[in-house]
Write a structure and sequence with these properties.
4 helices; 34% helix; alpha+beta; single chain
């Protein structure tokens, strides 16, 4: 069995690279029913069924605004045989507008070498809410 921290090192490498194989590996770590928990009071907040939500809501919403999203730097990874914890910075930039530099922590739960849950914690939840509510308001039903 590979420890979560070992997977997470490769996971973060895959998120920041242009290498399709590395990106594919990163996404392959998500179980089909992975739950992603995002804090705050904005369009992206809540508990979401990971792969499905990313493909149908998150990625298309960011694409509408030509948002540049880049996970810039992972500062530390710790964990045991079931959990991994990361501390990272993620930047969201909208050309000609505002940039959000989000300092985050994420707790990953693994089962059978797959991520089954990701719980994100914002260091400045209010700034994230302001940014996402300004540039990505909830669309009327």
């Amino acid at each position: 069995m590979t420890l979560p921290v070992e997977h997470l090192h490769r996971y973060y490498e895959g998120l920041v690279t242009d290498d399709p194989a590395a990106k594919a590996y990163a996404l392959s770590l998500w179980s089909e029913d992975c739950i992603l928990h995002i804090p705050g009071a904005n369009r992206f907040s809540g508990a979401h069924k990971g792969k499905e939500w990313m493909a149908q809501e998150y990625v298309p919403a960011l694409a509408v605004r030509d948002t540049l999203r880049q996970k810039e730097e992972c500062f530390s990874l710790v964990g045991d045989d079931r959990y991994g914890l990361s501390h990272y910075r993620e930047t969201f930039a909208i050309p000609g507008a505002e940039t959000l530099v989000a300092m985050r922590h994420a707790l990953y739960e693994f089962e059978n070498d797959l991520i089954v849950s990701i719980r994100v914690f914002e260091e400045d939840e209010a700034a994230a809410d302001r940014f996402f509510n300004t540039y990505f308001p909830v669309e009327p039903a």
